[in-house]
Amino acid sequence: AQTVTQSQPEMSVQEAETVTLSCTYDTSESNYYLFWYKQPPSRQMILVIRQEAYKQQNATENRFSVNFQKAAKSFSLKISDSQLGDTAMYFCALLTGTASKLTFGTGTRLQVTL
Amino acid sequence: ETGVTQTPRHLVMGMTNKKSLKCEQHLGHNAMYWYKQSAKKPLELMFVYNFKEQTENNSVPSRFSPECPNSSHLFLHLHTLQPEDSALYLCASSPRQSGNQPQHFGDGTRLSIL
């Protein structure tokens, strides 16, 4: 079975600052993919960034980057130069090859303040 | 334009009513998904269709009945629901069920059971 744990229910960051959201996961499979999704108040779940487990290099997407620690099964999201539009729920998700199921964490609510 | 459109956006119904949720995707994908999102809980996968065939029923009560007439459309028929079924129902699609492609989500239908 796959599990995804997000231990920070809520976080706050000031505009232009950097924030890191934590995620740990567990799976017995060697082939899997990790995602961070953002869900703003508009409710649409938007893909922020993805990481293939077989890649050692951390994924980056503009102001968003991940710290993927495979041995520790950790997949944190770093948001640099935070903007008001980054205010949203952030979900970490795990996709395993054989199960082809996307397992989500409980989410972290991020508030960006002035 | 999200590529995945869900209607209605909001739905209030009594426990004895029958209603349907609709999902349409314009991305040329072949896999479609229904998720239930309740407060403080991870997204729960309900059903998966791959090339119009149901491949996953995650122990969903029979009062929820999915239908996938083609790869672009997915319905969730509802009847005699319970108050605990109040939630946000999200539809998603991906190129196919297996593989590493992320799922694209709609805006969801907020369902309230009176």
Describe what is shown at a glance.
Chain A is mostly beta strands.
Structure description:
The complex is a heterodimer of chains A (114) and B (114). In chain A, strands 2, 5, 6, 10, 11 and 12 form a six-stranded mixed sheet that branches. A four-stranded antiparallel sheet of chain A has the order 3-9-8-7, with no helix packed on it. In chain A, strand 7 and strand 8 form a beta hairpin. The mean pLDDT of chain A is 93. Chain A has no helices and twelve strands. Chain A starts with a strand and ends with a strand. In chain B, the strands form two sheets. In chain B, strands 2, 4, 5, 6, 9, 10 and 11 form a seven-stranded mixed sheet that branches. A four-stranded antiparallel sheet of chain B has the order 1-3-8-7, with no helix packed on it. Chain B is globular, with a radius of gyration of 13 Å. Chain B has 114 residues and is mainly beta. Chain B is built from no helices and eleven strands. Chains A and B meet through strand 5, strand 6 and strand 11 of A and strand 9 and strand 10 of B.
Give the DSSP E fraction of chain A (strand runs of 2 or more residues): over 45%
Largest interface: A-B, 23 and 23 residues
**Main sheet record of chain B:** 7 strands, mixed
Count of helix runs of chain A: 0
Rg measurement of chain A, Å: 14 Å
How far is the N terminus from the C terminus of chain A? 41 Å
Q: Count the strands of chain A?
A: 12
